[in-house]
Amino acid sequence: MMEDSTLAQVGKNLREAMKILEDGEPDVGMERQLSVRNIIIPGPLQGDGQDVTSILHLVHNLIHEEEEEEDEKPVQHRMQNVGEQGHMALLGHSLAAYISVLNRDRLRKLTTRIQSDTTLWLCRIFRYENGSACFHEDDRDGLVKVCRLVINARYEEYATEGYTALSSQQPVIYQSTSCRPGLGQHLCSQLGLPLSSLCTVPCNTIFGSQHQMDVALLDKLIKEDIEAGKLPLLLIANAGTPGAGHTDKLGRLKDLCDQHHLWLHVEGVNLATLALGQVTSAITAATRSDSMTLTPGQWLGLPAVTAVTLYRHEDPALSLAAGLTSSQPVEKLRALPLWLSLQYLGHNGIVQKIRHATDLSQTLLLKLKSMTSIKAAVGFLFILLLMTLFMYLVDTYKWSSGGSTDGFCVGEKEVLDTFNRWLGEQLAQLVSTSGVDVVELEDEGTCVRFSPLLTAAALGTQLKDVEDLEEKIMELVHTMSSTISLRQDFREETHRHSPSLTYVENLSWPGLGAVRYEPQLAEGMDESRRKQEVEKINNNLLKKLQEFDTDVVFSTGGSEFVTEDSCIFVGMVTEDVDVSELADTIASLGREIEESGKLLENMTERVRKGIQEAELQLQKASEEKLMEEGMLRQIPLVGSVLNWFSPVQSSIKGRTFNLAAGSLDSTDVTYSTKAQADRAALQDTPTLGSKRSTGQKLFQHSSVSSDPMSESGSSSPAEDTTVISQGHLSAPLPAPETPHPAEGAPHVQGTLELANTHVEATEEEEEEAQLKDQELDQSGR
């Protein structure tokens, strides 16, 4: 048998391309080329063209472009594990392009064989006898074409009259409330039907599962539509709902459809279990349906593989008119990637992959049963071989002995939804290969879903990942339990510091809570100015808290938690956190920042007023001196002679400016004690925290009694003080919120020096006068 060199070259090129895309190690020349041309901005088409390697490297950089931009904030990306079976699927796309150029006869024979083999294999694997197959890219297209087939079959004049034939009897399509969101609307849009042709059937409310279609109610709705002159057309049932993975009562639904001449279409992940040796009767009933949609690409980890809709219909002309089959050989090549992959895996390989998914789900279920705070069954059977849903529940008995739970019932469901959403997001990041995600159920609320059939093959999930998932669940549950037990205590501690602190109620925040510092602002301040001041102080307070060496996380909460007035969000905490110390620290830091801000704002005004007062007092002292000594003594030569004959003791005193008090004081005390005096003794800035043992972090309980006003605060920049000797100033340094604190320093320092110059002017004049008197006394003697 002659080997086709082109086919061999296609396989070789694919392997080389995959190696470049997966490894992505460009040579030096390629790096230089990429550095010159920005790959983000589209550029003109190269005139001479590029080689394959350069193009593949460009594709690699475009794929990983987002990862390079997010180096500062790493994000977990679930990259599909492309194994050998994945390479076969990718090879199928390359071969389809090659086969499409064959002559028409050879192309027709080859495509017919490929589609026939694939259809036969799928029907045997999934127990669907005497079925035909439609291969489509969008997993909803098969249902659209099936609906078109049923319309052609039920309306005989539809082929000639079109949609006018529907006016005699309006068609009705039935679906469950648990169906995929938007599926019914998509059908009506593609078929050109009004939304009134879509009937949504509620699920059971009293008997049976809350996620199963109510069969009795469906029967009633069908009879009402028939009496109204409508034509029941098709029923969409679930073998594994998208949210909870539950299966409708397919046997009863099939009997009801036969009774009213409806077409029954089934879809869902649980159809994959038809390939196993032992199948439940609820799933086996799906083989009686008129059509069902399979997604083997998701189940087997095959990239870019089409979905398949298996159906039974005896009229090939109607199937062709509905688009379920095609007369174009190229259209049949859609089955080629799946045809290659099924041969590569074999029947045993397909069964093994589905069995592996069920084992992973059952293993996690057994581990979850031992956790008291995790519930894996909420009102109905949550586990159907291929999907495990679980949620975190409050252990009120445990928390009643370790923390306060009063008031937790208010919004309890919303709080649980918030914490379960956080649990799912954390598990998805910490154990990314597990493929867990978060689902919202109408009655149960937020749950974490583990669906290995849809993710295990692509992510390469193994039993070790399930063990890691169990370990992380236990750690996160312990953290959530500690946080919820301390939420009410933190609220009470915040209220104890009222009105300085305000507890912000936000049930959607997964953490200890949110708090806002309320500064004491002047009455009558404009509302916009008040908000700016509150936001400024709380932003600075947040920065100070983030500088502490602690396990407690402080943040703004992100864009989804933005409130009208800015506040500080406290994240998850452990059981050893002292919420009383936490609230005390937030309140004391807020006061320090508020006082520092007020001092900086008032310093310039105080200095300006002090200079004006000093100038007035100096002018007044000069006038008093003139009145006391007379005009003649002010003449330089005459004054000296008069002072020699009749010395005069000057009464003018010096002045010193107290910045802290904003007042002028006499220098008598300064010259008598040789040191400057303050109006009040300087007080040390209170320190934050308590004495801690080695390795103990802030806000943690200590077994040793400690002084809450010592040591730990000495390392914080909030406790540094600045002393200005000339101005008697003792105040905290400007808070780190000021972007450029040095910009205002030259002005304040220059103003202070000017004040000191004016104040000390009289001291220099007095000293000069005393020296002149001494000289005159000595010359007279």
From TrEMBL:
Superkingdom per UniProt: Eukaryota
The name this protein goes by in its record: Pyridoxal-dependent decarboxylase domain-containing protein 1
Cofactor(s) annotated in UniProt: pyridoxal 5'-phosphate
A Pfam cross-reference name: PDXDC1-like_cen
Region span, Disordered: 678-781
Keyword Membrane: yes
Coiled coil segments of this chain: 586-631
Biased composition (Basic and acidic residues): 769-781
Keyword vocabulary terms for this entry: Coiled coil, Decarboxylase, Lyase, Membrane, Pyridoxal phosphate, Transmembrane, Transmembrane helix
Organism whose genome encodes this protein: Nothobranchius furzeri
Upper taxonomic lineage: Eukaryota, Metazoa, Chordata, Craniata, Vertebrata
Transmembrane domains' residue ranges: 376-394
Statement: the UniProt record of this protein carries the keyword Ribonucleoprotein: no
GO MF terms, alphabetically ordered: carboxy-lyase activity; pyridoxal phosphate binding
Record's compositionally biased regions (Low complexity): 702-716
Domain PDXDC1-like third per the UniProt entry, residue ranges: 494-598
Family as reported in the entry's similarity comment: Belongs to the group II decarboxylase family.
Residues of the PDXDC1/PDXD2 second domain: 412-484
Biased composition, class Polar residues, residue ranges: 684-701, 717-728
